[in-house]
């Protein structure tokens, strides 16, 4: 444990400030003060970090490596202080020096190296692994530019580069001595030596992968795990000497630029796959560097390479790091002289894979020609894996060529990465019960039949340390004062809060806390959007990526309908609401961008209309990111989880809202189903088309949105207002949304669910009217949210997939 008190901290802080800034604290800017604090905290962590690594090396327990193209960490200072157990000491000591800790925390740039759910899940998992004392580390890419910053200009999204490293990053340590070389292009020479085939990769281009390590501090347990992010640099010998010195500057610069491009940007598409060469390069770059460094580490600590599968587990976060499979095979076979069968057995034992989406357009399929040119040796290995797999299939499904073709890894000129991931792993999991069932019976049915034991479910979770204790400290305090603090180490103990659900005093405190959080958010909204919102209104929140399947459109149509109704009948008896939206669209996803514009246009019109603006307001908060979510979620009354059933694999913001005492309005999709099972139908509002109806429509047809609309004046009025000039003088402005719903038959059943959603919203109003009932629902939601802590999820991964033991205590 760290032994510091207020006085030692003050002294350390003063010294650190002077050492890095060469001036007194009083002369420093707030940002200088943040930098000094971050740097001091990193020093505090450094010794624990070294000790943790020493222990890991000595005790020989299995190490887990979580490979992911994305880690959406957000800010690190607050969470690190909390986990070190020194946040209060620091706060008080800084207060004594006239420095406000909260203010400094807000100056930290979000580390936004992810698109959304998948990247944030990876970050919560790192927090849980460290807090459960599991030797588990992250491996990814240190993108120079993270997920773009979103500006709203003239009601529409404009993307601005996220130059998050411009002021440096106190949390990372560059480890130049641990750099590895990654090889691209070239050819493979095959020789036959002493009866063995030898594969000689020649004429390749070399790229230097340089690791930057970030400490991941466990909750008050002295554990510091590592997130290793790789940055691409030109090899100095290739750059400086062979080209530059010969005067070939242009070529030298081209080489430098092409190398640096590899870790320059995070691809901002989410759930939409494009076969971009640079993305394939990124994938091999970090996977190869990561695996080389793991193998180097174990070989230098005298581990027998033939037993590597007992020492490590590698988890691949979606198919993006699937090249880990052929890369491990390459190193085992070409560099370690291990035969195919043994290499394959170990690879299979080491790798496990999580699927995060069933959306067909997100599935990665690399064109063979591109792949072969960039990664010639890796391609040969994939071909061999495919050949052997198809032979196996042929034994089981004799001459059933359709089936064999369907399941093969290479087909029609493409490499199917999900197939490679399934064949090369010992475990495939979905991220919520419904999602896993859909994988088993629909998308991956052939594979489930072939490898029934390989498939399993691991319902997602969230770090309750970040999403409750750190972002909603007042609620955490109420929990401590009612049920004690055991829930911090054992989040399912939150269930004890259920006893207080009807306690009037607790209900009053819950209401007060929400009110204070709403006031804070209202201030932020005023500062960012210039809109005054009523904190007595219900805060009705939908924040997530903007996507047709998440159905922000359904929410908009309902607001448009309500607006019409209120104009016609200003005394309509409704609960006043503030509709809050936030979310980014992929830059090339035009319909989603139009949805953002529609929300902003609605906001302009409604907020200005004095006939309605006492009852409803609409706010679109720009630049959705982790730190904004932390400000919005504790202030939400209603959580909108309204995706088309079957489409949202899990969702994780649904869990965050629940844990912060919001009531959910939801379809039975993703983890909403499990939330409903936990809290019961009385404490969540469910609506919408069922799983079977959706699957049936997709399979057999029979859905006709035009038909529904044409026979319904109310619906028709709302839909027509998209194109009749009500919301834009340019009648074509929202034509894409209209066409999607009407002309192209509403792929996501917005029209079908419209009335059912309106009914559900009416029910929400009724529930909200009864204050005590509402607070009881909030309390029950909080009490049942412990199961959605990522600690539970990670324990399931550790025991069910990785076979890893934690360092200090056994996993209960
Ligand atoms: C896919 C692709 C496709 C290729 C282009 C770039 C790119 C980037 C990200 C992705 C991942 C999309 C899948 C994803 O984020 N799924 C979300 O995962 C969450 C964590 O499991 C889950 O809660 C969400 O429901 C699911 O949509």
From TrEMBL:
Biological process per Gene Ontology, one example term: glycogen catabolic process
Domain of life according to the entry: Bacteria
Gene (name only): glgP
Keyword check for Metal-binding: no
Phylogenetic placement of the source organism: Bacteria, Bacillati, Bacillota, Clostridia, Eubacteriales
Catalytic activities: [(1->4)-alpha-D-glucosyl](n) + phosphate = [(1->4)-alpha-D-glucosyl](n-1) + alpha-D-glucose 1-phosphate
GO CC annotation: cytoplasm
Protein name: Alpha-1,4 glucan phosphorylase
Major subcellular location class: cytoplasm
Co-factor requirement: pyridoxal 5'-phosphate
Molecular function, one GO term: glycogen phosphorylase activity
């Amino acid at each position: 444990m760290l032994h510091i008190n207020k006085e030692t901290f003050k002294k350390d802080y003063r010294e650190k400030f002077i050492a890095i800034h060469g001036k007194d604290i009083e002369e420093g800017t707030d940002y200088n003060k943040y930098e000094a604090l971050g740097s001091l905290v990193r020093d505090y962590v450094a010794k624990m970090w070294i000790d943790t690594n020493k222990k890991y090396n000595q005790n020989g327990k299995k190490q887990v490596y979580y490979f992911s193209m994305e880690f959406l960490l957000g800010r690190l200072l607050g969470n690190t202080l909390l986990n070190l157990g020194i946040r209060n000491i620091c706060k008080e000591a800084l207060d004594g020096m006239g420095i406000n800790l909260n203010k400094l925390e807000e100056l930290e740039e979000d580390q936004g190296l992810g698109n959304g759910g998948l990247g944030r899940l990876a970050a919560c998992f790192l927090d849980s692994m460290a807090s459960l004392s599991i030797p588990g580390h992250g491996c990814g890419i240190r993108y120079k530019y993270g997920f773009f910053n979103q500006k709203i200009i003239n009601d529409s999204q404009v993307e601005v580069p996220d130059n998050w490293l411009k002021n440096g990053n106190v949390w990372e340590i560059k480890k130049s001595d641990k750099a590895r070389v990654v090889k691209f292009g070239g050819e493979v020479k095959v020789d036959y030596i002493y009866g063995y085939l030898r594969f000689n990769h020649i004429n390749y281009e070399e790229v230097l992968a340089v690791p930057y390590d970030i400490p991941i501090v466990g909750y008050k347990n002295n554990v510091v795990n590592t997130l290793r992010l790789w940055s691409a640099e030109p090899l100095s010998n290739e750059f400086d000497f062979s080209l530059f010195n010969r005067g070939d500057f242009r070529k030298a610069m081209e080489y430098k630029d092409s190398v640096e491009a590899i870790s320059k940007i995070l691809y901002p598409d989410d759930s939409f796959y494009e076969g971009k060469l640079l993305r394939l390069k990124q994938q091999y770059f970090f996977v190869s560097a990561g695996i080389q460094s793991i193998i180097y580490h174990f070989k230098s600590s005298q581990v027998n390479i033939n037993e590597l599968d007992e020492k490590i587990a590698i988890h691949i976060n979606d198919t993006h790091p699937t090249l880990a499979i052929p890369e491990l095979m390459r190193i085992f076979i070409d560099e370690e002289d291990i035969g195919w069968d043994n290499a394959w057995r170990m690879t299979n034992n080491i790798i496990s894979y999580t699927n995060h989406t069933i959306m067909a357009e997100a599935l990665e399929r690399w064109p063979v020609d591109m792949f072969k040119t960039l990664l010639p040796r890796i391609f040969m290995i994939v071909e061999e894996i495919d050949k052997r797999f198809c032979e196996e299939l042929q034994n089981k499904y004799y001459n059933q060529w359709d089936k064999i073709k369907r399941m093969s890894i290479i087909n029609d000129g493409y490499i199917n990465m999900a197939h490679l991931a399934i064949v090369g792993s010992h475990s495939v999991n979905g991220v919520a019960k419904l999602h896993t069932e859909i994988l088993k019976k629909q998308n991956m049915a052939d594979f489930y039949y072939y490898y029934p034991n390989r498939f399993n479910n691991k319902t997602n979770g969230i770090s309750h340390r970040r999403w409750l204790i750190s972002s909603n400290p007042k609620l955490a305090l109420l929990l401590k004062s009612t049920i004690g603090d055991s829930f911090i180490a054992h989040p399912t103990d939150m269930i004890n809060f259920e006893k207080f659900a009807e306690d009037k005093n607790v209900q009053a405190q819950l209401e007060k806390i929400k009110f204070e959080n709403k006031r804070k958010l209202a201030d932020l909204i005023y500062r960012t959007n210039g809109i005054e919102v009523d904190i007595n209104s219900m805060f009705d929140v939908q924040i997530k990526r903007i996507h047709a399947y998440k159905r922000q459109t359904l929410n908009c149509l309902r607001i448009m309908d309500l607006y019409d109704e209120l104009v016609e009948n200003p005394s309509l008896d409704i609960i006043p609401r503030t509709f809050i939206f936030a979310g980014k669209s992929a830059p090339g996803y035009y319909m989603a961008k139009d949805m953002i514009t529609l929300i902003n246009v609605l906001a302009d019109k409604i907020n200005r209309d004095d006939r309605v603006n006492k009852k409803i307001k609409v706010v679109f908060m720009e630049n959705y990111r982790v730190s904004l979510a932390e400000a919005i979620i504790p202030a939400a009354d209603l959580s909108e989880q309204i995706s088309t059933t079957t489409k949202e694999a899990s969702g994780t913001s649904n869990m965050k809202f629940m844990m912060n005492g919001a009531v959910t309005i939801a379809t039975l999709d993703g983890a909403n189903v499990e939330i409903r099972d936990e809290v019961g139908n009385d404490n969540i509002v469910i609506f919408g088309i069922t799983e079977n109806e959706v699957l049936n429509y997709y399979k057999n047809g029979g859905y006709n949105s035009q038909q529904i609309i044409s026979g319904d004046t109310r619906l028709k009025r709302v839909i027509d207002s998209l194109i009749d000039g009500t919301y834009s003088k340019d009648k074509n402005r929202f034509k894409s949304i209209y066409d999607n719903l009407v002309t192209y038959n509403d792929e996501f059943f917005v029209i079908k669910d419209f009335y059912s959603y309106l009914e559900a919203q009416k029910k929400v109003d009724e529930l909200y009217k009864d204050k005590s009932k509402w607070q009881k629902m909030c309390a029950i939601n909080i009490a049942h949210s412990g199961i959605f802590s990522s600690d539970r999820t990670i324990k399931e991964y550790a025991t069910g997939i990785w076979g890893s033991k934690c360092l200090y205590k056994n996993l209960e």
